[in-house]
Amino acid sequence: MDERKAIEKEIRGTKTVSYFSVRILPYVLSDQTEGVIIVVVDISTQKRNELELKSIEEQQRAILDYVPLQISILDLDGNLVYLNWVRDGGNSEDVIGANLFSYFTEKEKKTLATAIELCVATGVNQNYQIEATGRNGESLRYYCEMAPMRNDNGSIDSVLVAAFNLIDSRIVEEQTFNDLNLS
User: Fold this and answer.
1) Average pLDDT over residues 17-23
2) In this predicted model, which residue has the larger pLDDT, 115 or 69?
3) CA atoms of 103 and 70, how far apart (whole Å)
4) Res. 90: pLDDT tops 50
5) Taking Cα atoms as reference points, which of 86, 87, 83, 63 lies closest to residue 75?
6) Residue 3: its pLDDT value, please?
7) Which of 37, 38, 39, 46 is nearest to 18 (CA)?
8) Who has greater pLDDT, 67 or 154?
9) Mean pLDDT of the region 149-164
10) The pLDDT value given to residue 79
11) Which of 28, 126, 132 is CA-nearest to residue 87?
């Protein structure tokens, strides 16, 4: 019997739900199993906290999936660690690990590299505008805010970037202006 394995069991009362971890250990005497030791621990609070955290994570994920900003996390080499969504219905999982520098011209690469360097060196948020070419060849222009992300040791190991597509916002503004003038 493997003593490292625990059996978790949900026990529902009439008004409450409780969770218990049950560990069954062999009782060995003189190289012969004489019986078992059963240890029961109430883990209800821990389980409720885990379930609440999962619910909060799902809510936050839903918000990030529908916010109009593209939110990304980059390592210090410019590789995508996280991206909340991709334009035109693409899958963010398909671009995770890609190097963001590969999407830009030399001028734009320098802008991005400078922003990362300053963000890491100063620990202060950076903002910049950058142009890119979309998957369908369309020209994109973003206003970006970059913030340092610190690891458990306090050192900066990645950056968080919130990118606002200026061209999409201009199109919406022009359409709204035209709609208002037509009415």
Assistant:
1) 80
2) 115
3) 15
4) yes
5) 83
6) 47
7) 46
8) 154
9) 94
10) 95
11) 132
- Count of residues in the chain: 183
Considering the chain, what is the average pLDDT of its residues?
Answer: 81
Q: What is the pLDDT of residues 168-177, one digit of tens each?
A: 655 545 555 5
* Bridge partner residues of 42 (DSSP): 20
3-state SS of the chain is: CCCCCCEEEEEECCCCEEEEEEEEEEEEECCEEEEEEEEEEECHHHHHHHHHHHHHHHHHHHHHHHCCCEEEEEECCCEEEEECCCHHHCCHHHCCCCEHHHHCCHHHHHHHHHHHHHHHHHCCCEEEEEEEECCCCCEEEEEEEEEEEECCCCCEEEEEEEEEEHHHHHHHHHHHHHHHHHC
User: Does residue 136 have a pLDDT over 90?
Assistant: no
The whole-angstrom separation of Cα 44 and Cα 41 is 9
- The continuous run of DSSP H or E covering 93 comes out as none
User: What's the DSSP call for residue 13?
Assistant: -
Rounded distance between C-alpha atoms, residue 27 and residue 4, angstroms = 14
DSSP per-residue codes, 48-89: HHHHHHHHHHHHHHHHHHHSSSEEEEEETTSBEEEES--GGG
Provide long-range contacts, Cβ within 8 A and 24+ apart, for 141-145: 141/165, 141/166, 141/167, 142/70, 142/166, 144/115
With residue 44 as reference, give the H or E element that holds it.
helix 44-66
- The H or E element containing residue 98 is none
